[in-house]
Every structure is written in structure tokens, then in C-alpha cells.
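thought: user wants a sequence for this fold. calling inverse folding tool.
action: design(structure=
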């Protein structure tokens, strides 16, 4: 719903677009960096292969010098590299609900990240805002 709302809010801005299709995975090329997006409700070590073999993203994935996959599902920060692909699990701004408490998914740092990319050098900065 946020993407739909922002798309309407920025409708006069030609340089701002939102990918609102219903696919479960999304990806784009920023300079020479491929960035894949997945909810993360899976074995995340398998995500690089998913994007590398996807009919929609394999060309972008193959042409990229740098490759990243961003997920969210687990609500806590984690970053690792698997076979040359950086996987970054984003933190969440949301609080702890009953299900998270019952499952002991508690005490995560509530935060949002802003990632900065250079067209040639890939990701060059990461900023974190905590609640």
C-alpha cells in the first residue's frame, strides 16, 4: 500500500517511479550493481541462485560487477556474503507483537537503513536511523 500511495504522491515527478507489480521477487541494476529484493521467508542462502536463474533477472545478474540481495522477514539486521553475493537482511521499525513474543523474536534494534550506491564502485555508504 505504501508504494501505491507514494506513486500517487510523486505522480508529477518524472524521475521517480515505483515497481508495483505483484511479483514475489524484484530486482534492478544500479550502475554495475544488481540488487535483488525478496521478503526473506525462505532459506536466504538460496536467493543468489534464484536471481541468477530467474528468466526476469538472470541477464541483469550476469552483467553486474557487484550483486546484492535485500530481505526483511526476520526483523533484525544481518549481512553476509555467499559466493560473491552480499545478502543483507534489513532491520524493522515495527515493535514486538504477540507472535514475535511467543517465538522469542524479541529485543531487536528497531531501525531503518539508507544505502548509498556509486554507479562504478557499488555500495559506498550505509546510514542507520534507530528508534
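)
observation: tool returned 131 residues.
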Amino acid at each position: 500500500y505504501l508504494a501505491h500511495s507514494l506513486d500517487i504522491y510523486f505522480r508529477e515527478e518524472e524521475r521517480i517511479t515505483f515497481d508495483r507489480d505483484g511479483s514475489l521477487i524484484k530486482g534492478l541494476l544500479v550502475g554495475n550493481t544488481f540488487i535483488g529484493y525478496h521478503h526473506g521467508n525462505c532459506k536466504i542462502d538460496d536467493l543468489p541462485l534464484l536471481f541468477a536463474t530467474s528468466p526476469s533477472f538472470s541477464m541483469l545478474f550476469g552483467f553486474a560487477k557487484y550483486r546484492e540481495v535485500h530481505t526483511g522477514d526476520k526483523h533484525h539486521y544481518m549481512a553476509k556474503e555467499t559466493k560473491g553475493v552480499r545478502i543483507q537482511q534489513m532491520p524493522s521499525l515495527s515493535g514486538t507483537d504477540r507472535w514475535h513474543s511467543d517465538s522469542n523474536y524479541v529485543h531487536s534494534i528497531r531501525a531503518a537503513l539508507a544505502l548509498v550506491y556509486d554507479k562504478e564502485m557499488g555500495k559506498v555508504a550505509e546510514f542507520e536511523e534507530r528508534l
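thought: summarizing for user.
answer: Here is the designed sequence. The mean pLDDT is 93.
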